[in-house]
Amino acid sequence: MPTPPLAPQRPLERTAQGETRVDPYAWLSRRDDPAVTEYLTAENAYADTILAPRAEAAGALYEEMRLRIKEEDRSVPSRQGNFEYWSETDEGDQYARHFR
Q: What is the pLDDT of residues 26-77, one digit of tens each?
């Protein structure tokens, strides 16, 4: 089994309201840093390797869930004060839209 990549610690001290915190992984929040991209690429490759034997089962599970999820849905409006609230989901949407 492959060894997972380990993110190097690069301690960063931050002081706020008189308290100092040390965050050894703050460097991972820098999206434009090539080292972050390199580390995330290694992490993704590790995940792909570990999950590869389960890819067929994951695909079957995904399809099973899609068959059970109603993609187009409208809730019944509920009145709260002077407003009515409801939600709608259309086919292909990842999230419901909420209305007032």
A: 999 999 999 999 999 999 999 999 999 999 999 999 999 988 988 899 999 9
- Any idea what the Cα angle at residue 27 is, between residues 22 and 32, rounded to 5°? 155
Q: Which residues pair with 88 in a beta bridge?
A: 74, 97
97 - beta bridge partners? 88
pLDDT digits (tens, 9 = 90+) for 14-24: 999 999 999 99
E-strand spans in 1-100? 12-16, 19-23, 73-74, 78-80, 83-89, 97-99
Distance, in Å, from the CA atom of 20 to the CA atom of 83, rounded to the nearest integer, reads 47
